[in-house]
Amino acid sequence: MELINEFDVSVPIDVAWSVLTDVERIAPCLPGAQLQEIEGDEYRGIVKVKVGPITAQYKGRAIFVESDATAHRLVLDAAGRDTRGAGNASATITAQLTSAGTGTHVTVTTDLTVTGKVAQFGRGVLADVSAKILTQFVDNLEQTVLTDVTVPTVPPASAPSAAPTAPTAPTADTVAELSPTAGAPADAASTVRRIDQPEPEAIDLLESAGTPVLKRAVPVLGVAVAAVIIWRLLRRRR
């Protein structure tokens, strides 16, 4: 199923891009999510989902398959499996950033596939839930990460110097300081880095979905009540 959501953040597009592509920084802002480790370009973690008294935990990974800083377009491939084996989920998430005055408008298109208990809610409920989760994410982002972001200002033009100085040749020590991979082992890029983030609270789908779930639940409850009444009448006749 395809879900389309939109939101705005109160920072310029280049700042928003640098923030939204920093997965480690923004992961705690996403309800129910916990980033646990990073290996190269792959991010691994869990998402906790609660459906009434039942809590499911999806363990999975996400990879950037496209990251165009010029067009401000991002494509993320994500997949997860219920740790109890009761279902799985996969999604291709495309985010397009556009300037909106002094802020940034973001359109998120999600091609989602789910199985198991969560799939019973259907597209309408999942669309409502995703919209509310995204709203919580943006609120968390504005109240935490974006409060510490410094918006760059254009420096005033300085007077040209009298004569340019010739560049000096870099020394071996300078090259080592500027190169993040200098002296590092060849397999450093594939090293798994553990992330210490707090345990997340499960997303309560019934609470997030609200009215749509109740509308779906009423007919089911009506059938259940009718079945109980019929069963009791048959027992009395016996």
Give structural attributes.
Alpha-D-Glucose-1,6-Bisphosphate, Chain A, domain 4; 9 strands; 6 helices; 238 residues; globular
Order of helices and strands: EHHEEEEEEHHEEHH
State the end-to-end CA separation: 50 Å
Low-confidence stretches: 174-186, 212-225
Please give the share of residues in helix: 25-40%
State the secondary-structure class: alpha+beta
Radius of gyration: 25 Å
Choose one word for the global shape.
globular
Report on the architecture of this protein.
This protein is an alpha+beta fold and 238 residues long. The protein has a domain of 166 residues: Alpha-D-Glucose-1,6-Bisphosphate, Chain A, domain 4, CATH 3.30.530. Helix content is 31%, strand content 34%. Strands 1, 2, 3, 4, 5, 6, 7, 8 and 9 form a 9-stranded mixed sheet that branches. The longest helix has 27 residues. It is globular. It starts with a strand and ends with a helix. The relative contact order is 0.19. About 11% of the residues have low confidence.
